[in-house]
Amino acid sequence: MTIPLISVILPTHNRVSLLGKAINSVLLQTERDFELIIVDDASTDQTSELLKQFIENDTRIKVIKNIAALGGGGARNVGIFASKAKWVAFLDDDDEWLENKLSSQLEEVNLSPSAVACSCSYVYNYPFGLRRKFVIPKNVSLNELYYENVLGGASVCFCSRDVLQKIHGFDTKLKSGQDWDLWVRLRKEGEIVVCDKPLVRYFAHNGLRISNDMQSQYLGIRRFYFKYRDNMDVTLRRFRICQACFVKSRDKEKILAKRFHYLYLAVYYSDLLVGLSYLKSSFPRILIDRLFCRK
What we know:
By secondary structure, the protein is α/β, with parallel strands linked by helices. The protein has helices spanning 16-27, 47-57, 71-82, 101-110, 142-147, 161-166, 178-189, 214-228, 234-249, 256-268, 272-292; strands at residues 6-12, 34-40, 61-65, 87-90, 96-97, 115-125, 131-134, 158-160, 191-203. The mean pLDDT is 92.
């Protein structure tokens, strides 16, 4: 049996309406030497029926069905340890790739023998036809990564399977920021190169997203902080704590007095510009919630 060059890992959970576009964006890649491992994370919608149609038409597709939902990180880990290729690429079920995504990143890592991973720029599609291009910086240091995830989400990640298995894939104890944490651990193993051109499309939608769950965001930030705080200087530690307070101020499940308190802490202990950005983002939300609820 021929071993493919790239393993594409696509976790999915109850997003049958979006899944087909994601799969097709993989099958239309100009680089053809890949296997597509779709990890169905205990979906209860018509995902299984849709996947049967794709399997019948393309032998490169393999489906793994989780009996119980493991979450995005856990589902990706299942795919990682089922993969056979030298390189691994991830795609979330609500994102899409441009057709030259794999070929461009493969070319980039082949130009840098020390590269263990590759990121790329991407386009975020907002409602009403609005778009924004995000350019990923090159030569990102560990300290920059401790500050924030400047390398993007899982759908831009192309990396060495051997290194992924060495670092045991995604940290499933993180409620959010699993992709950010993965970039940190990959960067510790070697160079991360970047494709300048946008190769991934992200889409805003009304479905369940971890980015909209403030409690999960907070728990992820908190675990990331305690995991890496020994590698941070005092200024960076303060920034991370202020960001955690800012996220708390946006949690609609908290009473308004608590939200105001967390926003005050975030603004008071931040640099001026960062504090103003927190105030601009969170304060109007708190006022709106104050008008429509009595908590």
